[in-house]
Amino acid sequence: MILEYGIMISTYSSDYWMDLIRRDHRFNVGESLEMLDSLSIHELMSIADSMTDIQVGNRVTFAVSYNINYSNYCAASCPICAYYVPAKAKGKDSRGFELTVEDVKKELEKAKAYEPTEIHMVGGFNPYLPLEYYEEVFSTVRKYMPESTLKALTIPEISYIAKITGNSIKETMERLHNAGMQAHTGGGAEIFDPEVRKVITTPEKISGEEYLNIAKQLHKMGIKGNSTMTYGHVEKWNHIADHMIKLRDAQEEVPGFLSFIPLKFSPENTPLLKMGKVDGPCSGDKDLKVIALARIIMGKAMKNISVYWVALGKGIAQMALTGGGNDLVGTAASEKIFGATNRRELTTINELSSMIREVGKIPAKRDTFYNIRGYF
Question: What angle do CA 300, 303, 307 make, to 5 degrees?
């Protein structure tokens, strides 16, 4: 950096960063921050879009997904979450629920109308459900929807289920996998930095290091899934870059992450907002920089950078497809977790396809494992 007329000016141009990228340079946190500081958002997105063209081409994918949330009772009660009902309030709070197997069957009947490529199933840290519950639910999903992939549970959920049922991660996952769970969701990563986690989570949730270790365990077992990051709350850019780099390094060590999904924090109805720790959602400018930075930092290690339109809104999501994003996650029918923050946007296959075509990309339906199932 140099000082000119009292203003800090970067000595690094977009050509400098592009040269590093062409040489497959592995960016560290300091370089990532310098790049953010030295490039305009348009330059950053342009670099990311060029990388996207090289790594995945001009195609933008999405799954036809149906969400089933099996419960909202949670022993963690994280300040970042608007979805949970405290587990100790079971029977005392009318908002709490647990789906029975019969309830799940009814949800699956609704799901059939969408012809989903995947069933997405998460809940919370429910201390009342035995491992047999998940086995029965998962086997029911596979029986009723054999043509759909069952993608279930966040990594912290898997850890919690293992803990309260007295099983190892390996034993737990072998049983759940045998029952029909085909992929993990990758949720619950939040931000890996321990100081940030103290603000946005509670001690019941695993650390960032534990998240990565469990992910590598699952991937060694052949159980793949996504990776995530929740941003736009109390974190700084160095925490974001560090999170992405840790995911990249874990992926290079034990491949198994199918995509990276940055999740924009939606503050409405969350304890974090009520405590005054945040004052609203972050800007669209930050959303676009996060997607672009993810593409640049993760390079060849994580070729699918997903844009979650439910969290971003469709306008910003569409713009992000021209700055590093190559996937719109899914149709997310019946999604309830972001819905608890009053984000209740709906979409259709036709709308997602139009969003993609309008920015000059080719829309394609995929399954959970990024196998193409059709073009539009």
Answer: 140
Which DSSP string do the residues of 228-267 spell out, in sequence order? EEEESSS--HHHHHHHHHHHHHHHHHS--EEEEEEEE---
Q: Are 331 and 119 in contact, with CB atoms under 8 Å apart?
A: no
- The verdict on residue 149 lying in a domain is yes
Residues 181-192 have pLDDT tens digits of 999 999 999 999
Residue 335 forms part of a structural domain: yes
**Which contiguous run of DSSP H or E holds residue 140?**
helix 131-144
User: How many domains, in total, are found in the chain?
Assistant: 1
In a domain, 297, yes or no: no
Residue 87 burial class via C-beta count within 10 angstroms: exposed 0-12, middle 13-18, buried 19 and up:
buried
Q: pLDDT digits over 128-156, tens only?
A: 999 999 999 999 999 999 999 999 999 99
| Continuous segment of H or E residues that includes residue 214 | helix 208-220
The helix/strand count (H/E) of the chain reads as 15, 13
- Residue 37 CA to residue 8 CA, distance in Å, equals 10
Assigned domain for 93 exists: yes
User: For residue 163, what is the domain's CATH number?
Assistant: 3.20.20.70
Per the CB < 8 A criterion, the answer to whether 156 and 206 are in contact is yes
pLDDT of residue 365: 97
* Domain region containing 339: 57-235+250-281+302-375
Distance CA 315, CA 320 (A): 9
Determine the Cα–Cα distance for residues 268 and 374; give it in Å rounded to an integer.
37
